[in-house]
Amino acid sequence: MGNGSKVTVEDVERVAELAHLQLAAEETAGMVKDLNAILDYVAELDELDTTGVPPLAQVSELEGAGGAGSLRHDVIEPSLERAAVMPQAPETDNVFFKVPKVIER
Amino acid sequence: MLSETKTAETAGRKFVEKPATLASLRADIASGSVKSVDLAARYYDRIAAINPQLNVYLSLTQERALGQAAHIDALAAKGDPLPPLAGIPVGIKDVLVVKGAPATAGSKILQGYRPPYDATAVSKLEAAGALLLGKLNCDEFAMGSSNENSAYGPVHNPVDIDRVPGGSSGGSAAAVAANMAVATLGTDTGGSIRQPASFCGVVGVLPTYGRVSRYGLIAFASSLDRVGPFAANVRDAATLLGIIAGHDPKDATSSRVAVPDYAAESDKPVAGLRIGVPKEYFAEGLDPEVRAAIESGIATLEAAGCTIKPISLPTTRYAIPTYYLVATAEASANLARFDGVRYGYRSPSSETLNAMYSNSRDEGFGAEVKRRILLGTYALSAGYYDAYYLKAQKVRRLLADEFQRAFAEVDALVTPTSPMPAFKLGEKTGDPLAMYLADIYTVTASLAGICGVTVPCGNTAAGLPVGMQVLAAHFKEGTAFRVARAVETAHG
Fold first, then answer.
1. Closest CA to B390 of B329, B451, B464
2. How close A9 comes to chain B (CA, Å)?
């Protein structure tokens, strides 16, 4: 981490593309500045030796018997009706979601 | 949002009003001396009168509240047994879905969305007799510490309308402080219940991770998100937690641990409890008036027969960087679902599907949400995953282990909830990192999954509330409530 590696305009543009965000040029400049400030700060974590420490993604395991631990039985249960869900879509024929063309030419 | 004569109109604490207790309201409704429909009407009148100044509610659900009120009144008239929250007016943070009501999450990207189902915590409140008044303002997707990131304008602190209410559950805290609801639901990912509760002078509860179902909560960071209550006093907050807690087949992370009678737990005396005071929460950067108020609260606990034990939690200083890596990584994945296809906002002019995705997201998300999506995507991207996300998960383990060792020696920890009282609107908006640092005392419990309560513990000379944070081990909410009760009795 850190190593003086600075986030560049190109990095932000690449990450924005991964995240499907279309940033304006001035937005990108602001994000470069903010991400560098934040990443400089999080570089403090390098001070800690975490050799051999198992990562903790979810605390349920720490809660022991109290944790979630068990999944529901694998049986089909009713879900929301299509008629209740489809009208929320910006564009729909009430069976399918309609979107602009998928393939660019 | 503000009227032109605001300075003259709003001198002093004219918006602060303490709601009646659950017990007294319920007794009035059971006896028939107060009609639930009249109570609902009184709350809607008050909301209509002061919401223009405070911007607490984003939408109201009158029809549903009044229907429930009529049902409660009919039960009371027949002399039937009343459910525990019969006729109690409550508000819901707008990241929890209420069937048919707008659900914005404080974001433009969810404009127009009316979810076809209820969140589990919401349906449990209503099943217990509560009236759902409406949806409460919050930071966009619960990302913020001041409520200034809402696409629908900031909430103003009822104690001083030039100050922030805290965030992200600013509307939930302000609603209780201004008696625009008797109690509310909020959510806490890194401090979003505790910090606004402390800024507004009310009680807020961070339940243990898994204690309350997250079904129907619009996700920010799934391993950290919790749903919890705000109330005007500790006992009522304990009652509310007992109602919304419990296993839910619709949330695989919800726990099967039995739900105790939290209100009864909160009645128990504190004598004999061992209270840890972690020195890292009293270091540089703590406002001297906040320190003095918390030290006075600690003296109260000692006088009540608690053993006060100074302890050290040295990993605390790494909690903010750990939190902002874990939370943003999870957010970048969770917020991928907002794409203009199934619900909410779609950019009107896009030639292709890919352009429609990115235009909708660019126009729909605010600056802080974009910043966090970018940070999270960066931390998860090829070449950086080990250095950032994996490293943060390892430090998260160290933090959690440190709390477990502490709770082998003490029953609860007490700290300030926030290093400073409510700050001015606009004071920190230019510097994202300074805003993140406001969460310094709350993100630790979030990462470890433990529970906590924030309770009013005096005021600054300027009259701004100070909150004491009481932390306890997983599923030890009862202990946190007991300690908070003792502090409230002396300082509330």
1. B329
2. 12
Closest CB from A38, A62, A99 relative to B324: A38
Helix (H) or strand (E) holding B416: strand B412-416
Nearest to B141 by CA among B169, B163, B165, B115: B169
Rounded distance, CA B456 to CA B388, Å?
37
Q: Phi and psi dihedrals of B227, rounded to 5?
A: -110, 135
Say if the ipTM goes beyond 0.90: yes
Contact A88/B116, CB-based, under 8 Å?
A: yes
Across the interface, of B116, B253, B395, the residue whose CB is closest to A80 is: B116
**Closest Cβ–Cβ partner in A45, A57, A85 for B391:** A45
C-alpha pair distances (Å), B256 with each of A66, B97, B119, B300: 7, 23, 18, 35
Nearest CA in chain B to A2: B387
DSSP string, chain A: --TT----HHHHHHHHHHTT----HHHHHHHHHHHHHHHHHHGGGGGS--TTPPP-S-GGGGGGGGS---PPPS-------HHHHGGGSSSB-SSSB--SBSS--
Determine contact, residues B168/B142, Cβ cutoff 8 Å.
yes
How many CB pairs below 8 Å do chains A and B form together? 199
Chain A, window 73-92: residues with a beta carbon less than 8 angstroms from a chain B beta carbon = 80-81, 84-85, 88-91
What is the tens place of the pLDDT at every residue in B238-281?
999 999 999 998 998 999 999 999 999 999 999 999 999 999 99
Cα(B374)–Cα(B380) distance, rounded to whole angstroms? 10
